[in-house]
Amino acid sequence: MKQRRRLALWLRFSLLLGSCWSSLLGADETPVFRLTLKDHLFSPSTLQVPAGQKVKIIIHNQDPNPEEFESFSMNREKVILGGSSGVVFVGPLQPGTYPFSGEYNPDSAKGQLIALPKEQWQALQAGGDDAD
């Protein structure tokens, strides 16, 4: 009985230590970006993200109808029901421009994701203007 209790305590301690260690190392620091879809338009229509890093994009569809976030260049598709949100993970991406659209409204629901090189991303975060 004492062995089981010790084992259970050891497992709990190990899990707690593991979660603390991963937090200290920044393992849970995936950058999060947000897109809104309203009136069949993405806002912002241009999303700048760091190149070479996995990013999480939360897309909130404020329209009553579903829309499919689609990007051939990022190899992503995600149907998002009206009045709900969806999550898309992309990357790590090479520096460059990656178009995306809404499959059900491709003429209006358009945007682009720009993966910025590390130096440009850092300058943008510091308030610099050389991210153009």
Major sheet attributes: 5 strands, mixed
Number of helices: 2
- The name of the CATH architecture of the largest domain is Sandwich
CATH class of the largest domain: Mainly Beta
Distance between the termini: 65 Å
The portion of residues assigned to helices is 10-25%
Task: Quickly give the structural class.
Answer: alpha+beta
Inertia-based shape: extended
Q: CATH H-level name of the largest domain... which superfamily?
A: Cupredoxins -  blue copper proteins
Strand arrangement in the largest pleated sheet = 3-9-8-5-6
Structure summary, number of beta strands: 9
Give the H and E element order: HEEEEEEEEEH
How big a fraction of the residues is strand?
A: 35-45%
Instruction: Count the domains.
Output: 2
Low-pLDDT windows of residues: none
Main attributes of the structure:
132 residues, 23% helix, 2 domains, four-stranded mixed sheet, 2 helices, five-stranded mixed sheet
Write the layout of secondary structure elements.
Blueprint: H1 2-24, E1 32-38, E2 41-43, E3 46-50, E4 55-61, E5 67-71, E6 76-80, E7 84-90, E8 96-102, E9 110-116, H2 118-125
Parallel strand pairs: 1-4, 3-9
Antiparallel strand pairs: 1-2, 4-7, 5-6, 5-8, 8-9
